[in-house]
Specification:
binds phosphoric acid mono(formamide)ester; Asp_carbamoyltransf_Asp/Orn-bd; Rossmann fold; amino acid binding; 2 domains; binds norvaline; single chain; alpha/beta; cytoplasm; 9 strands; ornithine carbamoyltransferase activity; 306 residues; Asp/Orn_carbamoylTrfase; four-stranded parallel sheet
């Protein structure tokens, strides 16, 4: 268990630009030295508990591998196999786990419950996706954009589709990294006005419209995600509303000719994105998936203060 205030990683909005950039700088260094004699193992002897209330491929494997590459170990738990599933409170769970492990990564839809866990824990807590945000994803996304196109400051990112957790973290990143964010969603699935207003108050250039072509115009990157996120209901209605927001060749041609395509994955080919775009020359989705590993090693190093 740690001493002092633990360094949690819950939301991009909890950080200032300098801190986020320092985490990414560390991530780039860790990527560069991976599997070389220079590779650092600063987390030797440390244990990360990973709690998954929902399924995961990337988050689960990249945190596990990342922790091991930094010299540490992991324990993976699912909500159902913990007493959490039988009514033990989140704060009691946090206090108990803090006596055993050195950090906790959690994927749980209830964002407030993750905050509660962090408040009660005496070790760092990392958000591995809630209904509101997916901060680790956006760190990897920005790292990926910058690897391909240089500094993201002043660039235009277009989001088309549902206003979900991934978009929530993009919105918080906009004022901190200084990129323009054009959002297109159906009116009925639009992001909450307060979320955009908050980013604008922090100086971000964030726009919303119902027109994906408007959003994609002059974009340096087009981003989308699934139409039905974990915990969403009424899949049929969402599919109907979101059809026009598919990223296909036509929509990509509305963006800059060298625009990247990003998707956090898993993708639903033929729904939010066509095979042609997913597998096309503008797509960097697998670099993005790889960078989850490197970005999160940067996050882990920050949380552990090493
Ligand atoms: N992008 C992402 O978080 O993927 P997983 O759900 O597989 O972890
Ligand atoms: N928006 C998706 C992301 C999955 C990684 C979901 O919440 O299901």
């Amino acid at each position: 268990a740690g001493t002092g205030t633990p360094k949690h990683f819950i939301d991009i909005g909890d950080f200032n630009a300098g801190e986020l950039k320092a985490i990414l700088e560390r991530a780039r260094n860790l990527k560069r030295t991976r599997r070389t004699p220079e590779a650092e193992k600063p987390l030797a002897g440390k244990v990360l508990a990973m709690i998954f209330e929902r399924p995961s491929t990337r988050t689960r494997v990249s945190f596990d591998v990342g922790m091991r590459e930094l010299g540490g170990e992991t324990i993976t738990l699912t909500g159902a196999e913990m007493q959490l599933g039988r009514g033990e409170t989140i704060s009691d769970t946090a206090r108990v786990l803090s006596r055993y492990v050195d950090a906790i990564m959690i994927r749980m839809l209830d964002h407030n419950a993750v905050r509660e866990l962090a408040d009660a824990a005496t070790v760092p807590v990392i958000n591995g996706l809630t209904k509101m945000s997916h901060p680790c994803q956006i760190m990897a996304d920005i790292m990926t954009f910058e690897e391909h196109r240089g500094p993201i400051r002043g660039k235009t990112i277009a989001w088309t589709g549902d206003a979900n957790n991934v978009l929530g973290s993009w919105i918080q990143a906009a004022p901190r990294f200084g990129f323009k964010l054009n959002i297109a969603t159906p009116e009925e699935l639009a992001p909450r006005r307060e979320i955009i207003a908050a980013a604008q108050r922090e100086g971000a250039d964030v726009t919303w419209s119902a027109d994906p072509y408007h959003a994609a115009a002059a974009a340096d990157c087009v981003v989308t995600d699934c139409w039905v996120s974990m915990g969403d209901e009424d899949a049929g209605r969402r599919h109907n509303l979101l059809k026009a927001y598919q990223v296909n060749k036509q929509l990509m041609s509305a963006a800059n000719s060298d625009a990247l395509f990003m998707h956090c994955l898993p993708a639903h080919r033929g729904e939010e994105v066509t095979d042609e775009v997913m597998d096309g020359p503008q797509s960097v989705v697998f670099d993005e998936a790889e960078n989850r590993l490197h970005a999160q090693k940067g996050v882990l190093a920050w949380c552990f203060g090493v």
